[in-house]
Design brief:
The protein has one domain. Strand 2 and strand 3 form a beta hairpin. It has a six-stranded mixed sheet with strand order 5-4-3-2-1-6, with no helix packed on it. The longest helix is centred in the first third of the chain and has 18 residues. By secondary structure, it is an alpha+beta fold. It contains two helices and six strands.
Length: 127
């Protein structure tokens, strides 16, 4: 009986570990024609650093790709759905060039970590 209980716990922990993965390289939504993509420039340097992928009339299939360090490569994927999940990209992908950059606020909540905010303002005067 104890052996069965231990193997059940092992299965449950394995499933939970798979759900809580911090790495997810699946970027197939980028080529799905259902998604409308909008690009943003959070630090005002003229380069894309946030891409928002949205299916019209859907509330649980939104994605964002974020260049968290403003290096010209998306390194974070966020899934905005029933639950929000953030996933580090093992292989960061280049941000697009020669695309229309939307002005204004992001359409979703994204909280920068303190070191990101410092990088964002580095080189610009606070006055």
């Amino acid at each position: 009986m104890q052996h069965v209980h231990a193997s059940t716990l092992l299965i449950v922990f394995t499933l939970l570990a798979g759900c809580a993965s911090s790495i997810d390289q699946d970027l197939s939504f980028r080529s799905d024609p259902q998604f409308v993509v909008t690009y943003y420039d959070r630090n005002g340097d003229g380069s894309v650093d946030f891409a928002f992928y949205h299916i019209p009339d859907s509330d649980d299939m939104d994605y964002a790709l974020v260049d968290t360090h403003f290096t010209g490569r998306f390194d974070l994927k966020i899934h905005y759905g029933i639950a929000v999940g953030e996933y580090r990209l093992v292989h960061p992908v280049p941000v697009p060039a020669h695309v229309r950059i939307e002005r204004g606020r992001l359409p979703v909540i994204y909280r920068e970590r303190p070191n990101q905010a410092m990088q964002r303002t580095a080189g610009r005067s606070a006055f």
